[in-house]
Amino acid sequence: VMKAAAPSLLASRRAEIPEEELGRFVSRVAALLQGRDVGPEAVDCLQRLHLVVAATKYPRTLDGKFVELLQTVLCLPKCPEQVQVLCAAILREMSPCNELILSCDEVQDTKLLSLISSILLAQGNKKAEVSAVGQRIVKLLEGRLPEGQSSRHLLPVLSNVISLSPYLQTDLQTNVVSKKMVDWLRYASIQQGVPQPSGGFFSNPRARQPGPVTEVDGAIATDFFTVLSLGQHYTEDQWLNMQAFSMLRKWLLCYGGEGMSTPNSDDRSEMDGSVMSMVSTTSTSSHLLPPKERLREKAFEYCQRLIEQSNRRALKKADGELQKACLIEAVTILDIICKQDSSYVYRTLSSLKILHDRISGDVTYARALLPIAQFFLNHSEMAAVDSDAIYKHLFTEIPAQLFHNPSLAFEFIQFCKDNSQLFTDTSSIFRQSFPNLFKFLAWNSPPLISEFVDLLPFLLDAGTAIEIFHLLLDLPCLTAALDIQLRSTSLPASEKASCDPAVKPATCLEAFRHPLYKSMFQYLLRVEASPEDSPERLIPLRQLLGSLASSPRVVQCADTVPVLLELFFSVVTEFADKLLINQLVLLVLQRSDQLYEIPAFKDDVVLSSQLLTLCKLHPALIVELSKELLEFLGSVGNIRNKEALYTHMVWAIGEYMSVSYDKRCTVEQINRFFEALEAMLFEITQLRPLASIPNYAPRVITVLMTTLTKLASRSQDLIPRVSLFLSKMRMFVQSPAVTSVYCEEDREEILIRATELMNLLKMPSVAQFVFTPPADVASTQFQRDTNESLPFALRMVSRLLEGGAGFMPG
User: Fold this and answer.
1) What backbone phi and psi angles, to 5 degrees, belong to 230?
2) Where is the AP-5 complex subunit zeta-1 N-terminal TPR domain (predicted)?
């Protein structure tokens, strides 16, 4: 009932409340707050008012006198705590507040100071307020608190101050807090706290005597207290211990390095590093260290103790989760400490190697492997330690087993992105493991696409480009395969029996274990790069997985592929050599119709523009791949199934099949391409009595005519053949079969282009100049802009021929 009522309550509060009604309600609340006894009715009204000002994206304005009243009530000595909390919450929602008169300068009550500070810090990161709060907090921590006051309320405020303005603290102030944190972290009591007496008749003073804190496995703690020490009740210093650990990482990052130097740092700057190492490792002399370095030492000891405690078997599931969270934090803090003082590296390396060996086989500790790998990335080179085994386990085991864990997927890819440059410089395992990394993307496409856009350039090089190209095109297929794998692992053992090789599998689940498809699944789900394998083996698997093509997860994955393909080509063209470009051109021609059966996916994956980019980068590929290109161009099926790709390839032949681009281009080669394209144009424009009605796009016909004309201008023996062909196009476009299919505009486009090309061929030298201009002319903007130069040249020549000798172009 409460869950059902909550949305309607929020909706009613979000609704626009008239100013008059809000004013009357505020007046009622003000009267209750000014009464002699602020009771339950006032609390109820404050809760409603807080909901009104909070449950909207638009700012609410309250009367200035009422805002002042809220501040006055907040600071009343005997004001009930619940009323104080609600007043502070309303004032925070009204921030930034012009009527603010609060100050933390003279406040002694730590709870009240925490509430006032939360209001001041909500005013829009004003440095004056942030600095005043920070100074007041440090001053109270430095002195002795009044009776009944607790530092527990101050540390969360200090943590917020650090987040807002980390550099407002002076060296003196940071030393004060560092000294306090040493005491809180290292010297908390190991006895449990005393529970508050109930005052009942049967209360027994002996039963309330505190016992020692315990470890997560129930053993009595014999070492110092940490956040993993358990008890029914905690003492004040134990609470401060836990709070200090929660803000330790932030404190060390802000004030633990050399940026905020201590007063004594200059006196010891010339001391030998090995001497300092001995000092830092000798607990008896730790009190001689400056506060910053002493905190670093105690933080190191604390984290080492947490690592030791994480080895215990927790009795409760919640305690086991706490162990893992503390382990991640401890390793991260150790990494920070070692960055700030390299003398800790060697001691930390040995303990983390032992830790890695212990937890690497347990997938529940997978998140903890990331900070361990981060540590070795940062420090193994300095310590001359080979850490490839750690990286290999991380990249091969974790993505393959936990690709379906969304939070781990994000953290893993973020870890890779943050360290991509470091990985590419130090280890080949990162790039070799890209098939595994793509499993995260295949399963979690929408939330990870922006991270992969940043990561993909670091995975690409000459050795991985071809395989990554295939994998990008097969990414939706990979999503479907992962779905099958996940469902297969959850099947009962009785259903996992081996399949009969002679019987064709009826479902994808059966195919996953069938010998005929097993090797295909293994290749698609591989954990490392396998450039020697042929992706063509996946054709039957794509057809098999067609039943999952409409799955929402598969469709979402397919939507990300065009973006990644565009990025792929923009990156690869920066480093690709001639051999790689030739390989990519052939793959583009081959894979354009070998895609997963999702109609929208096939429409979105447009490779024709990328084909032109590759041809422009390396025009000589037309000669180098002439055999393969002639085979592609000689198939009518490619016009039908790969129309855009075929058209662009024909255009590239006409543009780059010239001695201007490659000295190896011969008349014989030009003739071979001419004959192949002439046969295709004849095939799609011939009119036989029993022939089917032509259904090819006019653009295919006009590009074929133009390319044939270009080739004829470079081998002028071909001019009569192409002229004869072009002269027959009028009869083609006027035939009943063509007029029934093509609209008048399309027929006119074909006829005009044929006429213009015929006119141009009547002046062979002009045709050669237009289609193959000299280098100095070809470099001008006019000739580079193929959308303008060729049509203009054709129109100009047509006017020359039609206008007579008296016409001269401007």
Assistant:
1) -110, 145
2) 4-281
Dump pLDDT digits (tens) for 253-277.
988 776 543 334 333 333 333 333 4
Closest CA to 122 of 102, 139, 152: 102
Q: Enumerate the β-bridge partners of residue 226.
A: none
- Interhelix angle 345-359/366-379, rounded to 10 degrees, is 150
With 0-12 / 13-18 / 19 or more C-beta atoms within 10 angstroms meaning exposed / middle / buried, residue 46 is buried
Contact 524, 435 (CB under 8 A): no
Give the C-alpha separation, 124 to 121, whole Å: 7
| pLDDT category of residue 286 using cuts at 50, 70 and 90 | low
Question: Residue 385 in 3-state DSSP?
Answer: coil
Q: Are 264 and 151 in contact (CB under 8 A)?
A: no
Residues 6+ apart with CB under 8 A from 348: 300, 334, 337, 338, 375, 379
* Nearest one of 744, 678, 667, 666 to 708, comparing CA atoms: 678
The residue to which tokens 């047509």 are assigned? 798
Rounded to an integer, what distance in angstroms lies between the CA atom of residue 699 and that of residue 706?
10
The answer to whether 400 and 527 are in contact (CB under 8 A) is yes
* Under 8 Å between Cβ of 646 and 638: yes
Phi, psi angle pair for 549, to nearest 5°: -65, -25
User: What CA–CA distance (Å, rounded) separates 508 from 546?
Assistant: 10
The Cα 650–Cα 633 span in angstroms is 8
Structure tokens at 313: 């078997």
Burial degree of 278 (CB within 10 A; 0-12, 13-18, 19+)? exposed
Residue 52 has pLDDT above 90, yes or no: no
Query: What is the full DSSP assignment across 157-224?
Result: HHHHHHHH-TT-S-HHHHHHHHHHHHHHHH---SBPPPPPP---TT--GGGG---B-B-TTSPBP-S-
Q: Tens digit of pLDDT for each residue in 619-666?
A: 999 999 999 999 999 998 899 889 999 999 999 999 999 998 989 999
Residue 24 and residue 30 in contact, taking contact as beta carbons nearer than 8 Å: no
Structural element, H or E, at residue 240 = helix 236-246
Tell me what percent of the residues of the chain surpass a pLDDT of 90: 53
Q: How far apart are CA 343 and CA 337, in angstroms?
A: 9
Q: Which residue in 717, 704, 626 sits closest to 667, CA to CA?
A: 717
Distance, in Å, from the CA atom of 366 to the CA atom of 377, rounded to the nearest integer, reads 17
Tokens found for residue 392: 């290999």
Structure tokens at 130: 């942030």
- Give CA–CA dist 547/524, Å, rounded: 17
At 466, the pLDDT band (50, 70, 90 cuts) reads very high
| DSSP state string for 618-666 | -TTHHHHTHHHHHHHHT-HHHHHHSHHHHHHHHHHHHHH-STTT-TT--
CA nearest 244: which of 311, 154, 310, 336?
A: 154
Rg (CA), the chain: 38
Residues in the chain: 810
Pick the closest to residue 449 from 564, 599, 301, 350 (CA basis): 564
**In contact, 479 and 601? CB cutoff 8 Å:** no
Cβ–Cβ under 8 Å, residues 134 and 147: no
Report whether the peptide linkage leading into residue 96 is cis, meaning its omega lies within 30 degrees of zero: yes
Contact in structure between 629 and 649 (CB atoms under 8 Å) = yes
Residues 6+ apart with CB under 8 A from 148: none
- Predicted TM-score (pTM) of this structure: 0.84
How would you classify residue 478: left for phi > 0, otherwise alpha for psi between -120 and 50, otherwise beta? Answer: alpha
Give which of 726, 736, 644, 638 is closest to 693, Cα–Cα.
736
Tokens of 589: 């021609």
Q: Are 304 and 351 in contact (CB under 8 A)?
A: yes
Rounded CA gap, 90 and 102, in Å? 14
